[in-house]
Amino acid sequence: MAVTIKTSAFVKKLASNDRKTRDHAFETLKKYLSKKDSKLTYLEYQKLWKGLYYTMWFSDRPRPQQRLAKDISSLFTCISTTSNFTLFVKSFWDIICKEWPELDQWRIDKFYMLMRFIINSCFEKLKLENWDNDLVNNYINILIDGVLSGDRKIPVGVVYHIIDVWIDELEKVMFKDIDDDDDEEDDEEETDSLNDEKKSIVADIPIDLLLKPFKNLRKNALLKTLRLKTRDDLLLDSRLQDWGIDTGEVKPKKEEEEEWTGFGDN
């Protein structure tokens, strides 16, 4: 099986326009990735992701795009070992960042969708493993060393999108199993009970660790706009406060001075 995955023929099957061929290739890949003895090198994972990337690239219609994005993202939950999972994550983000400058306005939305689905799937994987500390640490460190490093070489559009969807997708996964029908007529007692249930769930999840990359960006990102977006759109998200999470950030009464102040007198 390992030999088959390395061949261009296998990647072509993943990119096939024939749904049966593509579905069979995905099932084959899932079975391989789920084996504990499966082992690909970082370079091999990159080749695989290059093929998956262009599978998405050539998908044109909305419904097939969504189905394909779900198929691709589902691969993350079936990987059996921590080392394979982190290599798979690293390879994906490395390929996305490498290929991002070549994306045009007609294709960018489907890759935004793919990134959202994959972030969700990675949270699902962490949840399936009961938020294992070693697994979460490895996952977060891969992001900190790569796509969320704050390096100017990382496409800012990729980082911005991660910031935009991170809390949304974490919320979906954390509270997937509780009854929250968002009924505006719920009485105060029911609302308080639901909030308490959410806080209880959050207490068993390493939220601080999941927020670590963004605290680093807030402090160390070279771009001021990225530091401010991280603060305003993620670390000051009201849901974190609702869950009892203190990020140490306070909304300033007066926005930080803009770097451009005009030609006024000093």
TrEMBL record:
The lineage of its organism: Eukaryota, Fungi, Dikarya, Ascomycota, Saccharomycotina. The keyword Magnesium does not apply. Residues 247-266 are annotated as: Disordered. Belongs to the RRP1 family. It comes from the Eukaryota. One of its GO terms (biological process) is rRNA processing. One of its GO terms (cellular component) is preribosome, small subunit precursor. It is found in: Nucleus. This is Ribosomal RNA-processing protein 1. Keywords: Nucleus, rRNA processing. Its main location: nucleus. InterPro entries: ARM-type_fold, RRP1. Pfam families: Nop52.
